[in-house]
Every structure is written in structure tokens, then in C-alpha cells.
Amino acid sequence: MKAKKDELYDVTAELDSVFGKPGTESRRKAEDLAWQEYNAQILLDARKSAGLTQEALAQRIGTSKGYISRLERGLTIPTISTFYRIVAAMGFTVELRSQN
Description:
By secondary structure, the chain is mainly alpha-helical. The protein has helices spanning 11-19, 25-49, 54-61, 65-72, 80-89.
């Protein structure tokens, strides 16, 4: 959907059109994929910020470069324990905070 000049673009309608209404299986799958890709990008950016290659990070956590590549492309989701090992290997910490 392309808005004409001075028209508002209805993102909700576009998302509903492409991925289905909220609560539908197709929308849930699209949202899950979007979160996987978002989290993969965060890991990629963090690794680069830490100045590590995929190979160096893989060595630090005892896995393969291919595994790190799959994580960064959103093809693999790490377990919580692996996620914490990755974060620590990059020199970062995870902070859990209450929303209260």
C-alpha cells in the first residue's frame, strides 16, 4: 500500500492484509519470525561492538563458527544457557528488571 502525498499510511491495515489479523496463526508466525530476526540482529551488533569475529566468539563458547552464523541470521535460537554464555563471552551482562 502506497500513500499519496498528504495521506496517512495505515500500517495496521497493511499488516492485517499481508500477515492476517492479530491472533491468527499466520500473524503469530510472522511475529515470531520478526522477533527471531530482531534478536539475531542484536546478537550480530553486540558481537561486532565487542570486536569479535564469529570464529573468536565460537571459540569462547565452545561451538562452531557456523552455529554463530546461524544465530546471527535468525536460523537458530539459542537456549537460555547458551544465550548467557554468549553474552558473557562478549563481555556483556544481562539485566532482568521488574516492570513495577
